[in-house]
Amino acid sequence: MADEEPVDQKKYLEESCKPKCVKPLLEYEACVKRIKDDDSGHKHCTGQYFDYWSCIDKCVAPKLFSKLK
């Protein structure tokens, strides 16, 4: 058992937190849809993307740190 590779709990916790972050995800998807025809490359959805992952990180952090050794 000691020879087994450790499992990354963060990935599983992220999946469990995604349903709690639906609003930022919808905002990101709406932005992507709005700018999909932009050929100039000036428009982006970076803010919405980071808002979504920030929501997930805030949900994951308390659960993850309790599992760390």
TrEMBL record:
Cellular compartments annotated: Mitochondrion inner membrane
Gene3D superfamilies named among the record's database cross-references: Ubiquinol-cytochrome C reductase hinge domain
Membrane topology: Peripheral membrane protein
GO BP terms: mitochondrial electron transport, ubiquinol to cytochrome c
Alphabetized UniProt keyword annotations: Disulfide bond, Electron transport, Membrane, Mitochondrion, Mitochondrion inner membrane, Respiratory chain, Transport
One Pfam family matching this protein: UCR_hinge
Gene Ontology, cellular component aspect: mitochondrial inner membrane; respiratory chain complex III
Annotated disulfide bonds: 17-59, 31-45
Domain Ubiquinol-cytochrome C reductase hinge: 8-69
Record-stated family: Belongs to the UQCRH/QCR6 family.
Function: Component of the ubiquinol-cytochrome c oxidoreductase, a multisubunit transmembrane complex that is part of the mitochondrial electron transport chain which drives oxidative phosphorylation.
PANTHER family: CYTOCHROME B-C1 COMPLEX SUBUNIT 6, MITOCHONDRIAL, UBIQUINOL-CYTOCHROME C REDUCTASE COMPLEX 7.8 KDA PROTEIN
Name of the molecule in the record: Cytochrome b-c1 complex subunit 6
